[in-house]
Every structure is written in C-alpha cells, then in structure tokens.
Specification:
oxidoreductase activity, 14 strands, six-stranded parallel sheet, Rossmann fold, transmembrane helix, single chain
C-alpha cells in the first residue's frame, strides 16, 4: 500500500509543484489559478484535485456520472460529467479557460483539453505527449505542454506522508484485481468507472482459497444428520416424505448457519453496493432476511417503497398484485440469487423490463471463473459436480456476469471483483451497479 500511495501521489505532487512551474505548495502564486484535471476520480486524478485545492487553486474535474459527487467531495469546485457535457464546447467559452491542465487519461480527453487551456497556459499529461493529439486550431496558443514520468524522490514521499497524516489528503483504492484479470482491470480503468486507484494483486497468499468450497460442502454434509434429528424431534414427518422436501429443510438449516458465519466476509461489499438503493426498490429473494437491515430508514432514507419477491415462477404475478408495473422501478437488488435460479435467463430479462430508464440493478453475485484453464477454474468445475446437491441447486460455473450484461441495453456497467479475492478463489464475485 505504501508503494501505491507513494507513486501516484508523487506523480500529482510533481506535476503540480515541480513540472508546472507555478510554485510550491503554499506559494501565493496558486491563488486565483484555475486547474483542470481529466479523469479526476482516478488514482492520480484524485490526488491532483486534492493537492490543487489545498494550494488554493480553483479546481475543475472530469469524470463519469457515478463519480461526480466523489470528485466534488475531493474539493473540485466544478465537475464535468463527460457523458452529459462536451469538454471541448465547455473549454471554448472564455470564462471557462484554465491556467493549467493536468491530464490523467490521454486520448480524446487530452485532445479536448487543448481547447480549455488559456493563451500562455500549461498542459501536462502523464499519459502521452500532448502534441500527439493537438488540434490544428490550437497550435498558435503558445501553450507550454509536455509529458512526464514521475521520478523517485524520498523528500516528496515524506511530503505526501505528512499531508495524509495531517488529514489534508486521503488515498482511496477503487478495487483490487488478481493478475489473471488484468484485462478487466484495464477495461475498468479505460472506461472511466474507477473511483481511486486500481491495484493488481501479484501475491499468491490466497492459495488456501482452494479449500473453501470443500469446507463448505463438508459443513453442509454435517448438517444432514443434524437436520434429520431435528425433524424427528419436532415430529415434522411431512418434510421426510420426499427427498425434495427434506433437501429444502436440510439446506434451510445449513443456510441459516452459513449466512451468519459468512456475513463478515461479504458485508463490506454488500453494504457498500446496497447503500446505493433509492426510490422504488425490488429486492429479489430476501430469503432469511440477512441484508434487510440495509433497507431500513435508519440505514437508507432514500428508499420510498420496498418490495420483496421470491425468484419463483409466480414472481411476475406477485409484482403485478402489489401494483408494480413495468418501467417503474428505480432499484433492483440481487445478492447471491442468480446462482440458484433454475431458469435465470427469463428471470433476468423480466426484471430488466421493470426497471425505469436510468434505473439501477445492484449486484453481488458469485460467478464463473474467468479462466477455465486456471487452477481455480479447473477446481471450480470439479467441485461443481457435487456442489448443487448440497447447496440447493446453486451453480458455481454459471456465467452470471455475461447473463446480466446481455439482458438489455445498459448506459453504465460498473462491475468489479469482490474484495480480497485472489488467484485461487473458486467463488469469485462481481459487485457493482448496472444502469439502464
């Protein structure tokens, strides 16, 4: 983590207070300056925003729609949502011109940034040489522009450490990805969804994750005689009339324990993603109610109505009886649901129809290993031959992510891996938000 903080924070520090030539942190020269930061919610961008604000400059940041409030919280006076506002058009207005641009993403954003910097201003990119994408119309603006790579400097690291210790700046990790998912990590970075730094985990310290599914199955097996004894003791002979009824009773008893035992592992991701719920909410398969406390008024006052539905064949009729019509739902939430549904395709497609335009689907689901030939992928396929028997039809190898992404048209797909999931995890998760 120190390396993560050191490199990206020093990049911001050197761009602002060494490369720009405006002055050091604390110099009066920064007062009244206007600074534009592209990809302001990213790993370097968030540090540039905080440090420029700390220096006394007026900061403008660009980011995607989901990160607007985040960039504002860092200290930006104005945030440009690139999906709704054109940076080039914004920059062509004289009142919007800036003294300094710090570009953290390059490409189209860097090209448009040329229109935003004033005559005689400064344009710095940490992504590529700015002149590579300089518009012909901007070649006479006398803008000092350059690309730079951060240099090792102990003194700068000490400065950043002091800023963090004093609470003047903060580092934020968006997500941690195992190395085998580096392509997805870079897609998230390029897609503008990142809120802070994206980290690739190169460690092999998750090797014991290979044992987790086996331990879960063993625990489920131990609950078989416990369930049988409990049913006989309570004279619930009806549950012994068929294998299906007994299996449901067995799984219910095991699941009650498993949810309690595993909640600390899942809670950080589940609580974070479900905190986005608002308006009319449909929570699918509330089950034993493990996460219902997140929908209470004390935890979330943005919810106006909450509907709880089971993902059975009658859920569509159940919603209609409750007066819920297609295109009227603000939020749908699924936590460990789609892995166990017998026909997930029709369920997902129908739920999609209930979302209104700009409605959101909050997701926390375990998914198929991305690399079926990896150690985790091979082990996952092997354990899945018996897993559904002990886990009420749950499938480890269902490609739930692909199912969700292709259920309809999404304006935003902000999905990432679950927290602390390494190379050998046979229960990899996706967590995030899909916006219709």
């Amino acid at each position: 983590m120190l390396l993560y903080l050191g490199r990206i924070s020093r990049t911001a520090l050197q761009a602002l207070f060494a490369q720009s030539g405006i002055g050091e942190l604390g110099d009066e020269a920064w007062k009244g300056k206007r600074v534009l930061v592209t990809a302001a919610s990213g790993g370097v961008g968030m540090w540039v925003v905080q440090m420029a604000r700390l220096a006394g400059a007026t900061v403008i940041g660009t980011c995607g729609p989901r990160n607007v409030e985040f960039v504002e919280s860092l200290g930006a006076s104005e945030v440009i949502n690139y999906r709704e506002r054109d940076l080039k058009e914004w920059g062509q207005r004289p009142e919007n011109q800036v003294d300094l641009v710090v570009d953290c993403i390059g490409k189209k954003s860097l090209e448009d940034a040329w229109w935003c910097v004033k005559e005689g201003g400064i344009l710095i990119s940490i992504f590529q040489p700015p002149e590579q994408v300089q518009p012909e119309e901007c070649k006479g603006k006398n803008v000092r522009n350059f690309f730079f790579v951060v240099s090792a400097n102990r003194a700068d690291l000490e400065k950043v450490t002091k800023l963090v210790e004093e609470g003047k700046c903060r580092g934020i990790v968006d997500s941690v990805w195992p190395l085998e998912q580096f392509e997805e990590a870079f897609k998230r970075l390029d897609g503008g969804h990142a809120r802070g730094k994206i980290i690739l985990d190169l460690s092999l310290n998750h090797v014991f994750d290979l044992l987790v599914p086996v331990l879960v199955v063993i625990t489920a097996i131990l609950y078989l005689p416990i369930t049988l004894i409990a049913l006989l003791k309570n004279q619930r002979t009806a549950d012994l009339a068929s294998w299906k009824s007994f299996q449901q009773a067995w799984f219910s008893r095991f699941w009650h324990f498993f949810c309690w035992a595993s909640r600390p592992l899942f809670a950080p991701d589940v609580e974070k993603v479900l905190s986005n719920a608002h308006g009319v909410v449909v929570d699918v398969w509330s089950g034993s109610g493990d996460w219902l406390y997140l929908f209470t008024e004390e935890r979330n006052s943005n919810i106006t109505k909450l509907y709880l539905v089971e993902p059975n064949a009658d859920f569509h009729q159940d919603l209609e009886k409750m007066g819920v019509e297609a295109g009227t739902v603000d939020t749908i939430s699924t936590v460990h649901v789609l892995c166990s549904v017998q026909t997930p395709g029709p369920l997902v497609n129908t739920l999609y129809q209930y979302l209104k335009s700009n409605g959101q689907w909050l997701v926390y689901e375990h998914v198929k290993a991305r690399n079926g030939r990896s150690v985790a992928g091979v082990c996952q396929a092997g354990i899945n031959t018996i897993w559904p028997v002990f886990l009420d039809g749950c499938s480890l190898t269902r490609d739930t992510e692909d199912l969700l992404l292709h259920s309809g048209k999404w304006t935003s797909t902000d999905l990432r891996p679950g927290t602390n999931e390494g190379w050998f995890n046979q229960l990899p998760h996706i967590v995030g938000v899909l916006v219709k």
